[in-house]
Specification:
Blueprint (H helix, E strand, L loop, with lengths): L16 H9 L15 H5 L1 E4 L2 E4 L12 H17 L5 E7 L5 H13 L6 E8 L2 H14 L4 E4 L12 E6 L14 H4 L15 H10 L3 E10 L6 H4 L8 E7 L5 E8 L2
Helix pairs in contact: 3-4
Length: 267
């Protein structure tokens, strides 16, 4: 009589069609996926696609999400409005705060250069993140894709030139409430950087600090775009002391969730 084997075999990871395609595209078709646990395929290949371009990434930065491409669309539309209304002359000045791998600022630079060739409308783009680790990734991507941006480490806007004013500011900052992080998918909470996920107790700590600092940098006609948690309400996005200065308008993403905010000066 042969004794039964009570040891259950570990469930093997099943790759989605997207994951299979991604691994094959970047030369990882034949790897033993079980050696990687739940590591996202983007970290396995060191590549992620954003707005039709391939960016290099590593575990120091978040994996770019397709929803965030909408921030680029909003920015480009706003700049077109600036030009049509004569709010700007020949240069757009933009800040991408919390840039991570640099996808937003780099994409904006490349899209604007393509839309307004021969320096018809110049763009001056600053991209920043909390430390040199993230900025190293962003600088690598700027070089690989041929973008012209000014990249530097900064705690929100603290290291920005004090005399520089911006037409457009995009804040893609950590916004997930801390208590919700344990409930995130393991491929996110166990592999993506905690510092890039956690927005503090309510998910608004860095967003509020950024908005408070932005008052000194935003032009009168300027616009701020934010990505936030779908649970955040209009009376929560703005710090109380800014309610007489700024107006906040929510924008739903392609999935019908109120993910984005457009911030403008009231006067």
């Amino acid at each position: 009589m042969v004794a039964g084997n009570d040891t259950q075999e570990e469930e093997k990871r099943k790759l989605s069609p997207y994951e299979q395609t991604h691994l094959a595209r970047f030369g990882k078709r034949n790897i033993n996926i079980d050696e990687y646990g739940e590591t996202p395929v983007e970290y396995i290949t060191g590549k992620a696609e954003f707005y039709g371009r391939v960016f290099s990434i590593n575990p120091d930065v978040l994996i770019p999400r397709v929803e965030t491409e909408e921030l680029v669309d909003f920015g480009l539309t706003e700049i077109e409005h600036f030009i049509k209304t004569g709010s700007v002359d020949d240069q757009i000045v933009l800040a991408d705060v919390g840039t991570g791998s640099g996808v937003i600022g780099i994409t904006m630079n490349l899209e604007l250069d393509a839309k307004y060739p021969n320096q018809k409308i110049k763009n001056k783009i600053y991209i920043s993140d909390i430390s040199d680790k993230e900025i190293a990734v962003a600088k690598k991507n700027a070089a690989l894709l041929g973008a012209t941006v000014t990249a530097f480490a900064s705690d929100l806007l603290k290291e920005y030139p004090k005399d520089q004013l911006f037409d457009l500011m995009i804040g893609n900052l950590p916004y997930i409430p801390e208590q919700r992080i344990p409930a995130l998918d393991s491929s996110v909470k166990d592999y993506e950087p905690f510092i890039a996920l956690s927005g503090g107790p309510e998910g608004l700590t860095l967003i509020h600090s950024f908005l408070q600092q932005s008052v000194h940098f935003l032009k009168k006609h300027g616009v701020i775009f934010l990505e936030a948690d779908h649970t955040h309400l209009a009376n929560e996005i703005l710090p109380k002391e800014l309610e007489t200065i700024y107006a906040a308008e929510s924008i739903k993403d392609d999935f019908g969730q109120p993910r984005f905010w457009r911030i403008t000066r009231k006067n």
